[in-house]
Each structure stands twice: as C-alpha cells, then as structure tokens.
Amino acid sequence: MQALRIVLLSTAFNGLTQRAWLDLRESGHDPSVVLFTDADEVARKVRQAEPQLVICPFLKDRVPAELWRDSPFPVVIIHPGIVGDRGASALDWAIMKGEKRWGVTALQAVEEMDAGPVWSSREFELPRGIRKSELYNGPVSDAAMYCIRDVVEKFAGGYQPQAVDYADPQVGGRLQPNMKQADRAFDWRAPAAEIKRRIDAADGQPGVLADLAGGRYYVYDAHLDHRSGEPGRILAVHDDAALVACGDASLWIGSLRRQPAPGEETFKRPARHELGGLLEDVPRLEWAVDTHPHCEESYQPIRYREAGWVGELTFEFYNGALSTEQCQRLVRALQWAKRRDTQVLLVRSGRGSFCNGIHLNVIQAAEHPGEEAWRNIQAIDDVCLEILTAPQLTVAGVAGNAGAGGVMLALAADVALARQGVVLNPHYQTMGLYGSEYWTYTLPRAVGGEMAARLCGDCLPIGARQAWRLGMVQDIGPRDPDAFGSWLLSTAAAAERTWPEHARRKQELDLGRLQQCRRAELDEMREDMLENRRQFAERCRNFVLKRPACGTPDRLVAGWARADG
Fold it and tell me: Which residue stretches of 242-323 are H helix?
C-alpha cells in the first residue's frame, strides 16, 4: 500500500494514540499528530497539513465543523462502543450493565456526536470483573487497532462508509446519556460485588463519589474481600489500602481523591495517605511475601509462587506508579525470593501497567515534593539493584505498558519478555529528569551507547516489535493476558537454554561500574529534583493535576505536515 498522509487528532498522546502512531509507522505510513487545544487552532493546523485522512483515536472534544464539513479528507472517530452506540460514557455503561459483548466502531465525523456512517467495527467478549482502564487498554485497544488498520485499507481502496440502520435487529447500540455521579452512586449497604462494578465503571476517571470516614471522596482501585462489618466502616488497613465493609462482605479501596472545595484542585492518592490520621485507631493487617509467602488473602499487591525451578514474583501497583514505600516492600520481597532454591526468578506485572517509575502523585502531595522525589528515586534504584544482583537468572515479564524508570526496571533483568502490543517509553526528559534506575548501564548494554542516547533524547514511544529488533526485549508473547501468563512461565523456565549469552553475561556483571553509574545518575537527578534545573516541579504538578497540553510537541509532527514542509 502506498504511504498515506494521516493525521492523528487526539486529546492527548495517550497509550492508544501511541499504539496507533506506532502501528501506522510499522505499516509504512508517516503519521503526524495534532493534540486538541483551541478548536480554531486545531482546524488550522489540520488543514495546513493537507492530510489525506484524519483519524481520532482518543478525542473528548467535538471535531470542529470546519474539518468534517466539505473537507477533502474524511475525519474518522474511534468510538469505544458497538455499532449504533452513541455517547461519551460507552464503557461506563457497558461495565455497569454487565454487557457480555462489546466493541469498537470507527465512524465518520458529522454534526451529531457519534452518529456518522460506519467505516469499520470490531466486537469482543467483555471480561467479567474488569475495570474501565483495563478494558480500555486491553480489549478496546486491540479492537481499535483492528478498526484503524481496516479504515486505512478501506480508504486506500475507495470504500464509502455505511449509514447505521437502527431498524436492523443486528444493530444493538443506542444513544446513551452521559453518566452522572447520580448514576454511579451506591450505598455501602449494597453487596460488595455490585459496589465494585460501579467503581470499576468509573476507574481512571471520574471515580465514584462516596461518603467515607466522615468525608466525601472519589473512590478507585477496588478489590473484593471476605471480611464483614458495619457497612461504610473502615475495618482495617493493609499497605496503602483501606478495607471498607459493605452489605455482605467488604472492599479494599486502594486510591482516593478528596472532593474539592470550589476552586480547589485535588488528585488521587493512596487511600492510607489520603485518610492519614483518620486511620490511627484502625487495625493494621500485615502480610508480605517475606513473612507470609503462602498467603491466601485476596488482596496482594505483591505475590509469589513457584513452578518447578521458577520463582514468579508478581507486583501490581495502581497505574504502574511505585512510591518510596512500595519500592521498599518490593525490595524486601525480592531479597526473600533471591534466597529461594530456584534457578530462574521471574519478575512480572499484573493486570495493568508494568511500571511507569516513581509515584508522581505521592511526590506532589508531600510537604517537600523535591525531597520526596529524591527518596523515591533512590528507593526504585534499590529495586533495580536487587534484580541486577540476583543469583538466579532473572526474567522480566512486561505484561503492560511501561515508561521511564519502569522500562529500565525491566532492563535490569537478564532477559525481558513483552506481551504483544505493549508500548514502551524509554525516556525521562519530558518530565524534566536526567533519569536513573541504572539506565546508563542497562540501556547501552541492550542496544549500544549510540542508540541508548537516541532513545532517551528522541522522547518517542516504541512498540514491542521495535524493542525486540533493538534487543531491549528477547521475545514477544501472546496478547491475551491468560495466554501470556502461561507462555511467560514456560518461556522463563527455558530462558537459560534459549539465551545462554544472557546467562553468561550475569557472571560478568561489573559491580564497580554499577556503583559508578548510580552515583553519576543521582548527581544529575539531585540537580533536577532538589534544584529544579529542568522544571521538574512544574512538570510534575501539571501531570498530576492533568493540565491539558498547550500545543503539539514538535517531535510528533511529521515533516510533510509542517508549515515549512
């Protein structure tokens, strides 16, 4: 297929937009990105680029009429709903209603939102008990990629999109209202599973506003538990989560955001941090891999099991962010696992992101953010050091997207294995940081010094296939999470035979060089975090408070789309 001039118009360069950008490049196209700011400015930039096709993978705003009315190019919206579905709360309603099947539809922009003719659609089984962010980054993202590829092929072949016939019994979607907090509201006396479904349907944004501990909070990150008590009462605390009694059982709530006063901005924090002194008299329940290795508790952010000679350590932190305390817990778990009589130590992520590095929300909430960032970066360095120095062959299982220090955490392992479709962002500079996590040792070890500098300097995402070609990951497993888990365990068991050069490399680990790299990296990070030389403080605040982009970064604009192109 001849390369097309394709503009990706998006609210943010989020995971799906990055995946679309990468996939189009893999297919031989040179996509250009326009981030939505002012409608008139967006229309001017898109028209100025003279694209053949505009695709909107993630767009919260209406497409300016100037772009879809009498344009020489179609504007195609990727809508996370089945054919006929309309409205901004498609996934929220699908989870709340317990739909068995759902899908993604690619439709042409018209005056009425989500009402245009259909270019492509793809349905899938809706997994039970899935939260919105996992649904969006999993089955929805996969279906969206199918639709985007299909749209491009159909456009090249002269296809004309088809109007939706609501009289057709095969068309199951309908216009749905935007979900309000009144639709999401629950009573703690309701069954725990029902409350969890409501929280899952609001995961990411906007959360569900609920009464808790005498205040009003948006709740996130819910996990079922068997304990019971007076509904709405906090029964216990474990790690960063608070256990809240429901009508029949209870829920671990991992994250909260306090309802803001007029004109105030609040953001998500670990539940224990947000509630603070209100938890002084609440029992602490303690279990951890190093003290309770065979724990059967339902809520275990860090868990361990053994299969033959493979020890599998799974960590699952909300949104892939590791706070200082979470890093310290992970260090203790790794130290314990390293003492086990195993030949391979598999360190993998759970359902969400693999890891995105330090916990910017916890840092922003600290009395002295720079000092907390400094503690956090040293703590995550400690995690990487434990992986680097393990006596076993270490394997990283990258089950979700990873960014910054999270990519380097994976590279600390002897072998890195990725799930198909994951996106990696191996850079720090967009957050105003030099970077740490031994990246000056592990990234050149994987890709060479010149490519390491380029990856960190370009500040662009790379896909699993590109990471494999570069040598950052050694193999790519199935996209299906369950299939990936089985593949990961069997591949890890054979890793020493499959990649003997990586096993030998462990014997050549230069501890002195490691120490030099860490010291040099931290010297740079001290300037960034404590002296704020690259505006880390402002960038961190803008990220945590979800301030929209003020423009499209120049690195995302293709040469053909530039004003001087």
Answer: 271-275
